[in-house]
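Posted in: Protein Modeling Q&A

I'm a second-year student putting together a small comparison for a lab meeting, and my supervisor asked me to include a predicted structure for Crp/Fnr family transcriptional regulator. I've never done this before, so apologies if this is the wrong subforum. The sequence is pasted below exactly as I got it from our records. If anyone can share the structure token output, I'd also love a short note on what stands out.
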Amino acid sequence: MSEMVSTTQPRGNTSCFTEQNFNRLLVTMKDKTYPEGTHLFWEGDFSDKLFYVKRGRIKLTKSTDEGKELILYMYGRGDMVGQADPFFSTKHSFTAEVIEDSEIGVIEQKDLEIMICQHCDFAIDFMKWMGIHHRLTQTKFRDLMMYGKPGALCSTLIRLSNTYGEQHGDNILINKKITHTDLSNMIGATRESVNRMLSDLRKKDALEYENGMIVIKDLVMLQDICHCELCPNEICRI
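Accepted answer (user: helix_wrangler)
Welcome! Here is the predicted structure, written out as tokens:
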């Protein structure tokens, strides 16, 4: 009899896996702890593993030729991280930095290949997971390139609200302290320009601050600025 998955185990971006196939992942992975400030992998490292976040937080970044860091994704409990190219030797396009002490389940590529070959239903679920990642990347770059920095900022605020948001009446509290520097690194802008854009949104009564955290007061205004396509939450996330 196979080991049962804990019903309290968060699923994050792995919710596309059935319970049986998710259980196969859990049984295969080897647990490892990573202290804050360490890295799961660096840009340019060989991509031969996937990483499942059991505890902690990870950020994926891309470095420009000028040395500026662009934050592309933030991962938490229940998310699987990595560049998924089974059967091919590729290199990571991003760097994965541990921003909280984390417990990570490491899945070797050879074990992943075996599961894909042995279980066709697992292969289908894995293709779904890869599809979600591709859509995430596509929508992220659309937001960064199509509607200017105000559109990219508003899209990022919406993604933050879907990831960390708590409904407070008609408002949404982003229950995670995000600095202006963090926001600038998420959209490839300067901190000064982010300050100006946030100030403009506050003047328009689209958002406010509460104990250092952002409160979205007019979600529709943010959606209009970034031409929101109302993607599902598993795609529209930070």
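A couple of things worth pointing out for your meeting: The chain has a mean pLDDT of 89. The helical segments are 19-28, 109-118, 120-146, 148-164, 180-187, 191-203, 219-225.
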